[in-house]
Amino acid sequence: MSLKETPLGTPEQFNVVIEIPKGSPSKLEYDFEKDQMTSHFDFEHGFTFICNYGFIPQTKSADGDTLDVIVLGDNPIPSGTVVSCRPIGIIKQIDKGQQDDKILAVVIGDAPTYHYKDIVDFTEAERQKFIAFYAEIGRQRRKVVQIIGFEDKASAIETIKKAAL
Fold first, then answer.
1. 76, 56, 74: which is closest to 7 by C-alpha?
2. What is the pLDDT of residues 20-49, one digit of tens each?
3. How would you write 75-136 as a 3-class SS string?
4. Neighbours of 102 (CB within 10 A)
5. DSSP class of residue 164?
6. Distances (CA, A) of 52 to 68, 94, 118
7. Is 3-163 in CATH node 3.90.80.10?
8. What is the reported pTM?
9. Are 68 and 100 in contact (CB under 8 A)?
């Protein structure tokens, strides 16, 4: 089965195709036409992704792409891996003037992050880590990326429902 044929699952327990492993210095994206991961750019000055990053298959968000997902966890997950996740919230974001929200999720059964049930479990320091991370991405890409807020698990589930194809 091709990655583009990966089923969504449900809004409460969905599949995520990992594009960028935690710790990667490269911005990788899945190319649906070629059915493969492609490198879009490398970050500067030792900057790396702070979490695993991917998309929910069989979805379409407001920007026309699949829903983006930040997958919390201690270990990198290889690019192209499909993992079963549950939502804990949303990072509300504006990227180049467009809404570009990120679903926050944890891998089903991942003991180190299992304590996260909802965005309310995040400390202010954890929120600030994401704000700083996306500000640096914007700086390196010479564009404005702005986090405008965080929303809860229920909001994430509704967003996934609306984006499901």
1. 56
2. 999 999 999 999 999 999 998 899 999 999
3. CCCCCCCEEEEEEEEEEEEEECCEECCEEEEEECCCHHHCCCCCHHHCCHHHHHHHHHHHHH
4. 22
5. B
6. 11, 20, 18
7. yes
8. 0.94
9. yes
